[in-house]
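Backbone shape codes
____________________
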Amino acid sequence: MKMNWVTLTVNNLDDSLAFYKDIIGLQERRRMMEEGAEIAFLGDGETKLELVCDPNNQCSEQKEDISLGFSVNSLFEMLEFMNEKGVPIHSGPFQPNNRIKFFYVLDPDGLKIQFSESIA
């Protein structure tokens, strides 16, 4: 079985597209309107994300226990990039063991986004 994508309901499609394109590095693949909702698909290889903005169904509080995780080659470089882009660090960096280190930022709707580096 293969996961197709993750769907997020967002309050402002342009803000969310800017974040996931400029900060995460996903490419916009398709954008469309369907029954009053604006939908955008983004992707990079196996990573696929669907953003849905429906004025009649705005997202409420995100769950604190949900996060999206992205692997990076250098956590230090990603921390520098976040600083350059003015994206505040939500929490971390953490290194719970000698195999991984990570930190979190928040997307425009408050969803936690984790960046992790595997340590060889």
